[in-house]
Structures are given as structure tokens and as C-alpha cells.
Automatic annotation (TrEMBL):
Keywords: Iron, Metal-binding, Oxidoreductase. It holds the Pfam family DIOX_N. The keyword Repeat does not apply. Belongs to the iron/ascorbate-dependent oxidoreductase family. GO terms for molecular function: metal ion binding; oxidoreductase activity. InterPro entries: DIOX_N, IPNS-like_FE2OG_OXY, IPNS-like_sf, Oxoglu/Fe-dep_dioxygenase_dom, Plant_2OG-oxidoreductases. The keyword Metal-binding applies. This is Fe2OG dioxygenase domain-containing protein. Residues 204-303 form the Fe2OG dioxygenase domain.
Length: 360
């Protein structure tokens, strides 16, 4: 199959073509994985079906586990989170159907150079970028509230896509608010709703990135998704139980183990900033396989672009100066998309110059 213009060939098309040697645009130096499942395990927290009420017997103990994980890991998995398996299966089926559409039909939703919304193949889409391509295609759009969706890129013809996304995003909104409530309490903020209000309250939004990583003939030479920390507040990720998500822990890349029924939660950059560095936004990446595809569904909880995010006032005093400059979320995001995925580069840029000197 002739493919002169690799950069604009979807990874799925490339993989389906049966090539045995991948195009040079995808080849990069990939840091090795540290395989020692006994040494490091991302914490698994049993939410006992949402535990939303503070009347719940186990509230304090579960909240303490969440806070410790946010501080020490920046990543954790939640089980018994209250989202029905049947709903998760519907979200997965409806979005698998998107990637099974004929190429031409998917291309009707293709995103544009300066706007990630829609069907795409790489984040960090600067035409001048030297960045290598990634072994994965994705679909990206706002999912909640529904009026934020770009309907020109919404695959309305897919059966159950809209309904399952509606229900899933309603459930996730509750989970995000629950997590922010727990983290506000841990920071001893003036109210449990404090973090939620700082990220826009009712105006905050959810976006989904559905990742499809096809099998790759030379998986050790590529990444499915380059190392990055997320620019938003909190992320909840679902995957298809194929390994591939890795986090950097103490300098080493380790696998996030597959736990049936679990959702993976991660602290993202705006939460690290709000907590003045107490909660950690951790670098992660996606790796791929020779013989199997993988899918994941990352849902990002974000403030509206005009909301200024800076360390919470209550956390600042003479002994605890602000470690990050405040910026509107829009400004932060513009820089993030301009630079592309870049480890923890963005949150590093947001650090105050004097704190960089003292913390480096
Ligand atoms: O595929 C994964 O597990 C990671 C996805 C992710 O980090 C993202 O979409 O930002």
C-alpha cells in the first residue's frame, strides 16, 4: 500500500495495511519500563459504592486513603465507584463502533490544525514541531454539559453514543465533585465545595478523549501517547483491561495494573496548583503491543477558560509561599497545546521563579 504522506495517515490505516517496519516519523527513543509488580502498585481504593454521604461509616477512612494517594502517587484506582458495569459496557461499545466506521465516515469528524475537537491522530499539532508521531488515533470532544459539545464533530448516527455519554458524564460529574469534596477537606479549606468553586462550580466542564491504539509491528520503538501530565483539574480514565498505561514513579516507568471494574483517577496540573503542590500531577504515558489493540477513555474535568487558577489563599503564609503563578485556564491550555505533550513541562513553567530556584 503506497503511503507517501505518513504524517496524515491514520495509525489505524497504517496498522491495517500490514506493514512490518514502521515509518521513521514514529520512531523515538523510548525509556524502558521497570517491571517489578511487587515493588510499586498504584493504590486501589474501595469507594463502597460512592460513599457520598458523610454519614457513611467508612467516610473518614476512605477519604484518608484518597488524600494519601493524591499526595504520594497522584494516581489511584477506584473500585465499587457506583457506576454500573452495564453503563460502562455501553460507553465502550458505542465508542468502539466509532473506530469501526469506514475511514471516510470517520474523516467527516476530523479535527483541524488549531483545534483538537474531533477525530485526530496526534495532540501537539504544531506543523513546525519536530515531535515524533504517536501510535494511536483518538476522538476528542466536550461531553458535559451537553451544550458544550461541538455537534459538528459529534457522531450522532452511532446508536447509543449520545445516550450512553449523557449517562456516563452525569455519573462522572458526581464522582468528580465527591473527589473534590474529599480533597477540600484534606486541605482544610473553608468549605467542602471550595475546590469545586475554584474550578468554576456549575460552569466546569468534562471532555473525553477516546484513545484507540492499534497493534504495532515494532512496539518498542514507539509510544501510543507521549509522556505528559494532564493540564486540567482531575482525570478519570476507563480502559479495556489491556495493559498500556504507565506512570513515572521515582524516576522509573511502571505499569498501572489492570483491575477489573476499576476506574483510574489522576490529579492534574490545576489541582497541583490549587493545592500549592500538596497533590501531585504525575507524568504518564501510553505504550502499545505487537498483537493487540488497546482502548482507553480519559475524561478530563476542567475549569472554564476564563477562570484564574492559583494556589488557594488559605494555604499561603510566610512559611508557605505560593509555588505557582496564577493564570487563567485558557492561558495555561494555550501554552499546553502550543508546546504539545512534554512531560511535566507545563506545570514546571507555571512555577514561580524563586520556587524553582529553591525547589530545583
Ligand atoms: O491510554 C491511556 O491509558 C492514557 C490516556 C491519557 O493519558 C490521555 O488520554 O491523556
Amino acid at each position: 500500500m503506497a503511503m507517501e504522506n505518513w504524517a496524515f495517515t491514520r495509525v489505524q490505516t497504517l496498522a491495517d495495511s500490514g506493514i512490518q517496519t514502521i515509518p521513521p516519523e514514529y520512531v523515538r527513543r523510548v525509556e524502558k519500563t521497570h517491571h517489578d509488580p511487587n515493588r510499586f502498585q498504584v493504590p486501589i481504593i474501595d469507594l463502597q459504592l460512592g460513599f457520598s454521604s458523610q454519614q457513611h461509616d467508612q467516610y473518614d477512612s476512605i477519604a484518608a486513603q484518597i488524600s494519601r494517594a493524591a499526595e504520594n502517587w497522584g494516581f489511584f484506582q477506584i473500585i465499587n465507584h457506583g457506576i454500573p458495569d452495564s453503563l460502562i459496557a455501553r460507553v465502550q461499545e458505542a465508542s468502539k463502533a466509532f473506530f469501526q466506521l469506514p475511514t471516510q465516515e470517520k474523516e467527516a469528524y476530523a479535527n483541524e490544525a488549531q483545534n483538537p475537537i474531533g477525530y485526530g491522530s496526534k495532540i501537539g499539532y504544531s506543523p513546525d514541531s519536530e515531535a515524533k508521531l504517536e501510535w494511536g488515533d483518538y476522538y476528542y470532544n466536550a461531553i458535559w454539559p451537553p451544550d458544550m459539545r461541538d455537534m459538528s464533530k459529534w457522531p450522532i448516527q452511532l446508536s447509543d453514543f449520545t445516550e450512553s455519554m449523557d449517562e456516563y458524564s452525569r455519573e462522572l460529574s458526581k464522582l468528580f465533585e465527591l473527589l473534590m469534596e474529599v480533597l477540600s477537606r484534606d486541605l482544610d479549606l473553608e468549605s467542602e465545595n471550595s475546590l469545586n468553586e475554584s474550578v468554576g462550580g456549575e460552569r466546569k466542564g468534562l471532555h473525553i478523549r477516546i484513545n484507540y491504539y492499534p497493534p504495532c509491528p515494532q512496539p518498542d520503538l514507539v509510544v501510543g501517547l507521549a509522556p505528559h501530565s494532564d493540564p486540567n483539574v482531575l482525570t478519570i480514565l476507563l480502559h479495556d483491561q489491556t495493559p498500556g498505561l504507565q506512570i513515572r514513579k521515582n524516576g522509573a516507568w511502571i505499569d498501572v495494573q489492570c483491575v477489573p471494574g476499576a476506574l483510574v483517577v489522576n490529579i492534574a496540573d490545576q489541582m497541583e496548583i490549587l493545592s500549592n503542590g500538596k497533590f501531585k500531577s504525575i507524568e504518564h504515558r501510553g505504550v502499545v503491543h505487537k498483537d493487540r489493540s488497546r482502548m482507553s477513555w480519559a475524561v478530563f474535568c476542567s475549569p472554564p477558560r476564563d477562570v484564574l487558577v492559583s494556589p488557594k489563599r488559605e494555604l499561603i503564609d510566610e512559611q508557605h509561599p505560593p509555588l505557582y503563578q496564577g493564570a487563567s485556564y485558557g492561558e495555561y491550555l494555550t501554552k499546553f497545546f502550543k508546546k504539545g505533550l512534554d512531560g511535566k513541562g507545563h506545570i514546571h513553567d507555571a512555577k514561580q521563579q524563586d520556587s524553582l530556584v529553591s525547589n530545583s
